[in-house]
Amino acid sequence: MNGMGSSIWWQWHGLALHESAGLSMLITLVIGLFGWSLSSRLRGSPSRLPPLAEALYQLMHDAVAEVLPPKYTAAVFPFIATLWVYILVANLIGLVPGLSSPTRDLSITSALAVLVFVAVHGYGIHAAGWRLYLSHYLKPSPILLPFHLISEVTRTLALAIRLFGNMMSLEMAAVLVLLVAGLLVPIPLLLLHVVEALVQAYIFGMLALIYIASALEVADQHTAMAQAIDASPSSSDQESSHE
Q1: Half-sphere exposure of 122 toward its Cβ, with a 13 Å CA cutoff?
Q2: Phi and psi dihedrals of 25, rounded to 5?
Q3: Which residues 6+ apart lie within 8 Å of 149 measured at CB?
Q4: pLDDT tens, position by position, for the chain (243 residues)?
């Protein structure tokens, strides 16, 4: 599904590469190369890291550290930071004449939401094990399982539609203003686009971070409960009686 007339870049025997997918792959490639370059500099000499990149890194790291316990920050930070950078670049690329933001395409935002969904449960299962983590869907009663599943699906859909709707409406508003006022208001319009791009990237990343933090909290709670049960006196007595 493509947002508002996404153009086709390449087509072969019924297979088509739309602008949004092509730009998304290019952004991913550029971010990957940029990250590789920065990591090479850090390995060689941390002082060679550009001041702007260092400031952005510290801002993102502090934001993640405020939400997650210290033991999880290092594992989750790369995923959240990549989300922030990717969505910000994807939002801002619509400022380039002739290009559209990939995030105004519902298929792109849906893919991002699914990626967050997989990451949330991946981190939770890695922290507690699949059996302990998935058992929380049966608490406090198995009757609530369908409601838990519906909540997961609707949360993922809301994440995709929120970003898509905001970026689509922003670009439509920009087109309408330009049609009415011509080129009289280009600078305020560009500033509005930049601010909205920053806000939407931040919100999406923070929601993903909150979902991951919630999953890790559930994992910690169930792990602690399991350890408490294993260490309880009744368990020790049963082991003694078997001996």
Answers
A1: 10
A2: -65, -40
A3: 137
A4: 444 446 766 666 667 677 788 888 999 999 988 888 777 766 655 555 677 777 888 899 999 999 999 999 999 999 999 999 999 999 998 888 778 889 989 999 999 999 999 999 999 999 888 888 888 888 888 898 999 999 999 999 999 999 999 988 887 777 777 677 655 666 677 788 888 899 999 999 999 999 999 999 988 887 777 777 776 665 444 444 444
- Helices of type H across 93-144: 106-128, 130-134
Residue that has been written with the tokens 């949330």 in this structure: 120
Q: How far apart are CA 121 and CA 129, in angstroms?
A: 11
Question: What is the rounded CA–CA span in Å between residue 93 and residue 197?
Answer: 10
Nearest to 6 by CA among 92, 106, 111, 78: 106
Q: How many angstroms separate the CA atoms of 102 and 24, rounded? A: 6
Residues 6+ positions from 66 with CB-CB distance below 8 Å: none
Q: Residues near 14 by Cβ (< 8 Å), separated by ≥ 6?
A: none
Nearest 10 degrees: Cα torsion 139, 144, 145, 146: -160
3-state secondary structure of 4: coil
Q: Give the angle 7-8-10 at the CA atoms, nearest 5°.
A: 155
List residues bridging with 15 in a β-sheet: 12
